[in-house]
Amino acid sequence: MRQDSGLAKIIVSAVKSGQIPPEFRVRDIMNYCDRNGLHYKESYYRVILANGSAETHSLSYKKYFKRLEKGLYELSKKGILEG
């Protein structure tokens, strides 16, 4: 998936295709992106996951992720269906 597709959609696509584990951490995403020539700052990965899983703030972010515990995420129902 191209970098201009948006990192959240890149993550969703990689999880669905098995290139990132179903339960993932920032390091999993960084490793995937490094292998595929996609480069972002570590803070950007963290922001995408935190804002993409928060139900009460950052409402402009699509909620593709569900936080399982600190630093551990999976795809939300929205991520599975729409991403």
Describe the structure.
The chain is of the alpha+beta class. The protein has helices spanning 7-16, 26-35, 42-51, 77-82; strands spanning 65-69, 72-75. The chain has a two-stranded antiparallel ribbon. The longest helix is centred in the N-terminal third of the chain and has 10 residues, at 7-16. The protein is globular. The mean pLDDT is 90.
What are the SSEs and their pairings?
Elements: H1 7-16, H2 26-35, H3 42-51, E1 65-69, E2 72-75, H4 77-82
Antiparallel strand pairs: 1-2
In summary, what is this structure?
With 83 residues, the protein is α+β, with helices and mostly antiparallel strands. Helices cover 43% and strands 11% of the residues. It starts with 6 loop residues before the first helix and ends with a helix.
Q: What is the percent of helical residues? A: 40-55%
Q: If helices are DSSP runs of H or I spanning 4 or more residues, what is the number of helices?
A: 4
Biggest sheet, strands in spatial order?
A: 1-2
Strand % is: 5-15%
What is the CA-atom radius of gyration, in angstroms?
A: 11 Å
Mean pLDDT: 90
Overall SS class: alpha+beta
- Mind describing the biggest β-sheet? 2 strands, antiparallel
Total count of strands: 2
Unreliable stretches (pLDDT < 50, length at least 5) are none
How far from one another are the termini? 12 Å
H/E element sequence: HHHEEH
Query: What is the molecular shape?
Result: globular
Question: What descriptive keywords fit this protein?
Answer:
alpha+beta, two-stranded antiparallel ribbon, 83 residues
